C-alpha cells in the first residue's frame, strides 16, 4: 500500500496534478508516518505554492533533507533568519549545509537579500565548487560584481570535478556498487537529492532500505527573484536572414515559474530499486537580469534647467554608437555553425540525452563509453566559458567586449532567447537602440512566451518614441502572462511615453506587488515620481531599489538627478560618483556629474565634460553643457565654437539654437541672434522653452539696463 500511494503521489507531481498529490500524500502519511513521507508531503505543498503549509509540517525536523525543505519554505516566506538557522545550525560547520550545491546556493540567496554581500559571495562560490554546472550561482556572482573569469571557473578544476562525478557514478552504478564506495564529491552530489526510507515488511521500522526520489519537484510559481524578445509588426532586415522557421505558437502562462524551481528540482525523484541505475539531473532556473534606464537625451533641455525628461536621457537613433552590426554577427554565427556542428554548438540537453540513452542500455551488452562522456563534459564547459565571459562583461558594462564574445557562439546557441536578450541589453547599454530593437524583435518573434528582458525592450521602444509598437507590445505581454512584472513594466512605460505619469505609476506599482524584489520596477517608479516632481517619493523608490541591488547604477543616477533638482549639489556629486564607479563608461553620468561639479564651483567641471565627450563622441549632451559652462564663465567665443560644432551634429535641437542666439546677443551680433532665436521657435520647443526664447528676443529690442529695471 505504501509503495502504491507513494508512486501515485510522485506520478501526480510529475504530471502537475498537485492537489491530487496532496490528497494521496496525506493518506500516505496517515497510514505510514515517517520522516520521508513528511518530506514528500512538503514537496507537494511547495509545488502547489503552499510554502506556509510546508513550513508548519517541517518545523523542528532535524534530518538534512527536511532542513533543506524547511529552509526553502522559510525563504519563500521571507523568514531569512529561520532559513539560515535551518541551513547552517552552527557557523563552525559550514560544510554540513544540506542539499550540496543547491543548499549553498539557497544560503547565498538568503545572505544576499539579508544584505550580507560577502557571505553571499562565499556561498555562491561554495555552490560552484560543489557543482560547476550550478550556473545560477555564477550569474549571482556576476550581478554582485564578484565573478572570476569564466575560463577559470569552468576550467580544468571543473572538468576534473565533473569527470570524477559522472564517470565514476556511471561505472559504479552500472556495477551495482554501494553508495559508500562513491567519492566524497559523489556523496555531496547525492546530498542534493532526497532519499526515501521504505518500511520493509517483517522488519522493524528502524530497518530501512534507502530509495532515491528521482522525480523533480515542479518549480513553484508564486515568487519571482529574477527578472531580467518580442513580437512587433515592424519588419526587421535581420529577421529574414535569421529566422528559418515560424515562431512557436503563443500560449498563455498564468502562473510564471520562479527561480526557486531550480533549487527544488534537485530534490525530487521517482522511486527505483537500489540495484537499478540512478542518475541525478540538475536543472537550471532563469536568472534575473537587469536593464538600464539611462541614455543620452534626444531633446536637450535649455540652459541648466534639469527637466522631467532628464531622468530618461537617450541619444537620437541616428547618433547611436558604432558597434558590430547585428547582421554581421548573425552571418558570422551562421558560418561558424556549419563548422561547429559537433563541437561548441552542442547543448547541455543534447549531451544529457545521449548520456541517458547510454545508461538505459543493458550493462551486459555494452560497457560505459567514458570517452564520449568526457568529450561531452568538455563541450559543455567550453560553452559555459563563452556564455559566462559574455555575461560577466555585460554586467561589468564592457558591452563591446560582451558582443564580441557572443559572436563566438554557434548560430543555434546565438538564436536562443537568453543569448538574444543579452545581446539586446548590450546594445541598449551602448545606446544603439536600432540594433537593440532588432535583436529584441527577433527574440520575441522566435520565443513569444519568454518574458525575460521584456522590460528592457519596452524601454528601448520608449526611447525610440515608438508609441504604437510599445502599446501593442504591452497588450501582448499582458495576454501572455498577467502575473509577470515585466508585463506591467511595459504597460507603465507605455503610459509614461504618453505623459500619463499617474497611470504609469499605478502600473509599475502592480509590478512591484507581483515581485517586491524586481529592482527595475522600483527604479521606474522613481522616474515617474520625479516626472511628477514628487522628489521625496522618487528618493524613496531609488533607495528601495538599492536595498535590493547595490550595483543597480540607474538608481544611483536617479538619486543624483533628484538631488540636482533639489539643488543639493554635494549630495548629487556623491551619487554620480557611485554610479560612475559601477558603470565607468557612461558619458551621460559623466555629463551630469560635471553639471553638479560646476554648480558646486568646482574647476573640474570642464574636465569632466571633456572626458564625457571623449567617452562617447556621438552624445551631444557633453558639448551642450560644456558650452553652457563656458558661457556662464564669460568665455563666449569658446562657447560659440562648441555650439557651432554641435549645430552640425544636431541641427534640429531648438535648445542649441536658443543658447547660440543668447551667446550672439552677448557678442552684440544681433542679426545672428535673431536668426537663431527664430530658428529655435520654428523647431517647436516645449512651452517653457518657448517662453524663455521669446523673453530673449524681447531683450534684443529693450536695452539690458531697462530689462533689468523691469525685472526688479
TrEMBL record:
User: What Pfam families does the entry give?
Assistant: ANAPC3 (PF12895), TPR_1 (PF00515), TPR_19 (PF14559), TPR_8 (PF13181)
UniProt entry tagged with the keyword Transport: no
Q: State the TPR repeat positions.
A: 101-134, 485-518, 519-552, 553-586, 654-687
Residue ranges under compositional bias (Low complexity)? 363-373
Protein name in UniProt: Cell division cycle protein 27 homolog A-like isoform X2
What top-level branch of life does the organism fall under? Answer: Eukaryota
Biased composition, Polar residues: where in the chain? 337-352
InterPro entries the UniProt entry points to: TPR-like_helical_dom_sf, TPR_rpt
Q: Which organism is it from?
A: Camelina sativa
* Key words of the record: TPR repeat
Output compositional bias ranges, type Basic residues.
288-300
Region Disordered: start-end pairs: 277-301, 337-373
